[in-house]
Amino acid sequence: MAKRLREKSAARKENADKRPSATAKYVRISPDKVRIVLDVIRGKNYEEALAILKFTRKAACEPLIKLLNSAAANAENNLNMDKTTLYVAECYANAGPILKRIRARAKGSAARINKRTSHITIILDEAKAE
After folding, report:
1. pTM to 2 decimals?
2. N or C: which end of the chain has fewer CB within 10 A?
3. What 8-state DSSP symbol labels residue 16?
């Protein structure tokens, strides 16, 4: 029994994704708004993605800049990669928990307000030298 568990854990470690990544959880912005900006930077190299985020006027850009810098720092410090060779391999925004609030309406009724949160992940990778 224990041997099989050791083999499974060794296989899991061997197949683990070795690309640098960063995740921001419970970001108070709708995942739909984040996905608009993520579609723009997907596939771009690190410097170009950072420049796009700095000059795009969207609310999602501020947490994405922090997240992109964090992923690049993880690549540089943990995996000894060079920032200039990195590109955005994958990026996605999943829905987090929804904060449910109410707004008063006519005749004593109430309307629901959904304050959405996001879990954002950016995965970088090294560009192959040609």
Report:
1. 0.83
2. C
3. S
